[in-house]
Amino acid sequence: MAAEPVDHVPDTNRNASPSADTGIEGRVAIVTGASSGLGRRFAKVLVEAGALVSITARRADRLEELRTELGRDRVHVVGGDISDEAFPAQLVKATVDRFGRLDVLVNNAGTGSMVRAEEESTAHFLQVITTNLVAVFTCCREAYGPMRDNGGGSIVNVSSMLGQIGIGRIPQASYCASKGGVANLTRELAAQWARTGIRVNCLAPGWFPTEMTAAMMADEKSLAFIDRTVPMRRAGRDDELDSALLFLAGPGSSYVTGQSLVVDGGYSAI
């Protein structure tokens, strides 16, 4: 007899937290797009795990607030626009100058908005590709030298479940193209750099509450869509990415490279 569908999937891990023994203690990391949302959370998680972290975004005032919250001796602020071709080199240099090395790069900065493909301008498409894909490549390229010189490192490129699948009903052609590009760029860099000790992986979230998804998370029809289409029948919480980030950034994933870890409540599985 087939099992009856449940009305709600219980959240059995609400009080769970990542292990303190993550191997992140003393490592030096960069987190882009750290002024809000997932990037802010990622910076906090890494600092709490013992890392020294450079945070970057365009909104320097928010970065300074985060630095004060997390500890001024453990956090370095490098304000700037990640889509500016010259900025990633400045970011990496400022980090190495401040902390002496670079072990972890979290490419989180991104942009996107809903617009039907037939109505999307080429300029908008290129803007999204530049921020979400080209800047990821540039940051990876600039991180290569310091990581190679240290004998290796870990790059975590934040993609999306929409880099794995199309969705249609929430039209974002440029966003999906950019995130799909990030996933395959990750595989290629992983293959090229594996012998240097540099691992490159993707963290691919599903529906999570961020500034970018705020309007969607406040809309009843959108929430009903999530309830219908996500097997776990809810959006994720930001803390449900913590362990995934620490796994990919730390030595627990020492034999993992070129992979996408999708955290989406099962959405892309069906």
From TrEMBL:
GO molecular function, one term: oxidoreductase activity, acting on the CH-OH group of donors, NAD or NADP as acceptor
Any Pfam family matching the protein: adh_short_C2
Keyword terms, alphabetized: Oxidoreductase
Biased composition (Basic and acidic residues): 1-11
Annotated region (Disordered), positions in chain: 1-21
Family: Belongs to the short-chain dehydrogenases/reductases (SDR) family.
Protein name: Short-chain dehydrogenase
Native source organism of the sequence: Mycobacterium paraffinicum
